[in-house]
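Practice record 12: protein with LB4VBGO6.
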Amino acid sequence: MSLRLRLRDPSLLAEKAFIGGEWAGARNGDTLAVVDPATGATIATVPALGADETRAAIDAANAAWPRWRALPSAERGRLLEIWHRLMLENAEDLAVIMTAEQGKPLAEARGEVTYGASFVKWFAEEARRIYGDTIPAPSTDRRIITLREPVGVSAAITPWNFPNAMITRKCAPALAAGCPVIVKPSDFTPLSALALAVLSERAGFPKGIFSVLTGLPDGIGGELTSNETVRKLSFTGSTRVGRLLMRQSADSVKRLSFELGGNAPFIVFDDADLDLAIAGVMASKFRNAGQTCVCANRILVQDGIYDRFAERLATEVAKLKVGNGFDEGVTIGPLINQAAVDKVERHVDDARAKGANLLIGGAALPGTLFAIPTVLTGATTEMALASEETFGPLAPLFRFHDESEAIAIANATPFGLASYFFTQDIRRSWRVTERLEFGMVGLNTGSVSLEVAPFGGIKQSGLGREGSRYGLDEYLETKTLHVGGLDPAA
Ligand SMILES: NC(=O)c1ccc[n+]([C@@H]2O[C@H](COP(=O)([O-])OP(=O)(O)OC[C@H]3O[C@@H](n4cnc5c(N)ncnc54)[C@H](O)[C@@H]3O)[C@@H](O)[C@H]2O)c1
Ligand SMILES: O=C[C@H](O)CS(=O)(=O)O
């Protein structure tokens, strides 16, 4: 069935880019195909924009900025509330579009739409709480206050794995803070972003404050990073591309927020609640077929519980159903492309060649993008999967003897995004939390992604935080006002 026929509101399937409040194609007429990873079928085409169209979006954003920043923050919040309401009213269509272009099971897509909308709701409310300070002056003739002001025209470059939430997690705080924002979604998943643009237009956003540019990344990204009118870049994606964008942004000294790659350890101590640990690893490892930046990438299990954990995990993994995300009961959809499948297979082959044992799974379905959920035992730090982010449904089990060894293994990575550990010992809970070198720690839970909590990494996993009350700071500048000459008349 065609994607358009699956939609209650076919107008949400936009095949034009949204530039300065207008729907347009590429000036040279070039287009990109959008492919369903489950079937290989082309489901839509979108414009392949370049630097010229990007400049037009930047100029439109800059022209719209003065009025947008001058609005009372409550008015910006009100418009975000309308956008939020429209997302929920069209949630099913947004989920269908996501499953069609990204592949995740429809139930997960519905969950992401709700999650994505929660950022819009959160920052619609936070817009009303952009506070400054009054600072005690060292003399009676002076008063000092701070003003929190929008940073300016902002760009958001987002990944394919969460094609809705990674956009709202950036655009909602930007807009709430008073910044116009230009989005470049992944060329694999532009349709979810364009559907959000359709809803932004319906919400009454002024022209120019929200644009979505589709196309191959180099031309659009080159302009977004080099154009001095763009004062802020927020990027979510691989550390490799993050480094590139950081270099490209250096000449114009942009404000940067980066959510990059991860290599999450998932540590299970002997005293762990086994039911909690199994539920946690299933949630953390196999969400989105393992294609999340916070997935458990290395599963470290203490000697005393190792065999029971491995047996229970294999039992749960055997229940996973691989297939088309639209099919009933499917819990593992396709990977995004052949390169992703090849990486999972390379990690499995490398690990087995270095002594790992295959407990369940082990390969992809030939000629498809479906990777079979796999558990390996006997994983070691010599294997590629220990130092590289697999980004697929592969669960390697590492054995450890004591707490210090587990922490040493966990921290032995240049990444520092998410980490997890399971124990019932309150003293160990604090010791391990404080020694793990990661931006986020899940203690007895496999989930660290909520709009109310700061999300982000340290080391080479990123800069800044998204969501929470901290997420707004990424789009604000602090201006200090000194008022002098105030000594009262003698
Ligand atoms: N930390 C997080 O919150 C988070 C979230 C999702 C994905 N990721 C990471 O992203 C990776 C997978 O996602 P991905 O494959 O989309 O990442 P990616 O880095 O390949 O692409 C991310 C975005 O950057 C764009 N891009 C690529 N090259 C570019 C260039 N030269 N100039 C401008 N834009 C460019 C892509 O088109 C896409 O929109 C994994 O490493 C994962 O850990 C991190
Ligand atoms: O890939 C990681 C994203 O940040 C998704 S989530 O926030 O963990 O859902």
